[in-house]
Design a protein that fits this description.
It holds the Pfam family MDD_C. With 359 residues, this protein is of the alpha+beta class. It has 8 helices and 14 strands.
Length: 359
């Protein structure tokens, strides 16, 4: 079992220059991460579906430099310099330097773009940090070719976690668990692990993301996590996440879609209930979020088609359903839900399997 110390690189060579390119997807949590301890350690374990189409594509060029006092990097977003992303990258480099002591020896040119519309309200931090972490691991592999594949992916997830917690679930596997859980072998607070006992019913599961509100969130996830300290329901919530993960583990293996729906919708509403019951309190759902939820419940009741919703920390609704009801559900979305989306926008996605090397 890998420990924190195993991720501290001590022996490595040097190269003059290199370039790499990776894509990494977004992910959608089924059991939610909400609340953390120091050093990006989650307060409870979480599990997610990896997405396929919502991705960040990041190119990294590194050039050896002579002074090694500071980090040095240029950042391009969709081909243009992006100053407002720089503090986040700077902070990320500071957090991971202990594990990648070679960072100050190179100048980095980071060129990044998303496949989903900018400011769609879709979390780009998960895919963005995951794609950057993959590139940094490619650099590590270039200067230390002895590392194993398993180490490569585990450390990529470990580094991504230090950038943004949920990013550690965007590295490898269709379904990923992050956080120690008694019943999941190899699970760790330090990185995500692939969960592979998945029943056929969940293969190619669909996620249509309804873009209800594309504006900036009033409260960032980082602030939200913090509000779980001294939260009146925190301890019970963390225990519940362990229980829900036990249940969903069994559900994903047995293929029980009806039970899946109960846990997933309850988790989404619990996440938002935590926001509403923190101090200060806040609401990230919009009126149209609730309209959509009610429509989904009505449609499910009337048709018995197993479609459900989940939410992340925002107003958008992820509509989840098995592949074999895709046609019916897309028709339902067209007929009844598109009117609640900002400019009628939604994104069709499905389960994918993680980061990919492009170069
Ligand atoms: C609601 O991973 O964005 O999406 O670690 O502070 O970067 P930081 O937070 P972040 O939190 C995501 C929370 C969530 C639930 C989840 O993805 O599990």
């Amino acid at each position: 079992m890998l420990t924190e110390k195993d991720f501290i690189t001590t022996t490595y060579n040097s190269i003059e220059s290199a370039s790499f390119e990776w894509s990494a997807p977004s992910n959608i949590a089924l059991v939610k991460y909400w609340g953390k301890k120091e050093n990006q350690i989650p307060a409870n374990p979480s599990i997610s579906f990896t997405l396929n189409n919502c991705k960040t594509i990041t190119k990294l060029e590194v050039i050896k430099k002579s002074e090694t006092n500071d980090f040095s990097f240029d950042l391009l977003f969709e081909g243009k310099p992006k100053e407002d992303f720089k503090p986040k990258i700077q902070k990320f480099f500071e957090r991971i330097e202990k594990y990648c002591p070679f960072l100050k020896e190179y100048h980095f040119k980071i060129d990044t773009q998303n496949t989903f519309p900018h400011s769609s309200g879709i979390a780009s931090s998960a895919s963005g940090m995951a794609a950057l972490a993959m590139n940094i691991m490619s650099l590590e592999k270039a200067i230390n070719p002895t590392i194993s594949d398993d180490y490569f992916y585990s450390k990529a997830s470990f580094l991504a976690r230090l950038g943004s917690g949920s990013a550690c679930r965007s590295i490898k596997g269709e379904v990923v668990v992050w956080g120690n859980h008694a019943e999941i072998n190899g699970s760790s607070d330090l990185f995500g692990v692939e969960f592979s006992e998945i029943h056929q019913n969940f293969k190619n599961y669909q996620d249509t993301i309804l873009l209800v509100d594309k504006g900036e969130k009033q409260v960032s996830s980082t602030v939200g996590h913090d509000l779980m300290h001294n939260h009146p329901y925190a301890e019970r919530r963390f225990a519940q996440a362990h229980e829900n993960l036990s249940q969903i583990k069994a559900i994903l293996s047995s293929g029980n879609v009806a039970e899946f729906i109960k846990i997933v919708e309850s988790e989404a509403l619990t996440l938002h209930a935590m926001m509403m019951t923190s101090m200060p309190y806040f609401i990230l759902m919009k009126p149209n979020t609730l309209e959509i939820i009610n429509k989904i419940w009505k449609f499910r009741n009337e048709t018995q088609i197993p479609v459900c919703f989940t939410l992340d920390a925002g107003a958008n609704v992820h509509v989840l359903y098995p592949e074999n009801v895709k046609e019916n559900v897309l028709q339902f979305i067209q007929d009844e839900l598109v009117g609640y989306c900002q400019n009628g926008q939604y994104i069709c996605d499905e389960i994918g399997n993680g980061a990919n090397q492009l170069k």
